[in-house]
Amino acid sequence: MFLSGPVGPKQESFIQATFYEDVRASAGPGRYGLDHPETQELGFAPSLLNLAGITAPKNGLMLIRVEGHSMEPTLASGDLALVEKFNGRVDEGATYVLRYGDDILVKQLQPLKSEGALRLISINPAYETQKITGLDLEQIEIIGKVTGKIGRV
User: Fold this and answer.
1) Mean pLDDT over all residues of the chain?
2) What does the pLDDT average to over 4-20?
3) Which residues are within 8 A (CB) of 66 and not within 5 positions of it... i.e. 6 or more apart?
4) Domains (range + CATH), the chain
5) Which of 3, 12, 76, 134 measures 20 to 30 Å from 69, CA to CA?
6) pLDDT band per the 50, 70, 90 thresholds, residue 132
7) Coil, helix or strand for 78?
8) CA-closest candidate to residue 63, choices 71, 75, 51, 73
């Protein structure tokens, strides 16, 4: 045998991810927020996440299905977004899942500090960018940062 080392699977602890089965993060106009979603706990081997270029999350991991086309080609309708729970800091240009009013959206975020505003950016140029200002900012709750995806080939 030309392989060396112990025979059998390497033991490693799994990273737990909560899959929100009924929630859809809209890559479009937004319409899929649920207050009491069905969930399922899944485990990911850290080595699998590392192979995919995904850093193990520090704040917990969620899986949320994307529906719509505004984030294509990065996120396609039907993809599962791997979302690290929000850590309180927005990285400009990163993609986030957020609640805006009753809707759950997936968008790139650009804080406009000098204007006291937040820009919600769709990657697909067929969709418009939204600028959230004033009291509408109080309706924004950032759920987490998209760190990867599981999608079809």
Assistant:
1) 85
2) 69
3) 24, 25, 27, 75, 76, 77, 78, 79, 80, 81, 106, 149
4) 15-150 (2.10.109.10)
5) 134
6) very high
7) coil
8) 75
Eight-class DSSP state of 3: -
The backbone torsions φ and ψ at residue 136, rounded to the nearest 5 degrees and listed phi first, read: -65, -25
Is residue 66 within 8 A of residue 24, CB to CB? The reply is yes
Q: Which residue has the tokens 């729970």?
A: 85
pTM of the model: 0.82
Q: How far apart, in whole angstroms, are the C-alpha atoms of residue 94 and residue 87? A: 13
Residue with tokens 């769709």: 122
| Average confidence (pLDDT) over 10-16 | 74
Tokens matching residue 124:
């697909």
What's the residue count for the chain? 153
Instruction: Express each pLDDT in 64-96 by its tens digit.
Output: 999 999 999 999 999 999 999 999 999 988 999
Q: Which residue has the tokens 């000098």?
A: 114
Mean pLDDT of 117-135: 95
How many Å apart are CA 40 and CA 19, to the nearest integer? 5
Residue with tokens 């977004």: 81
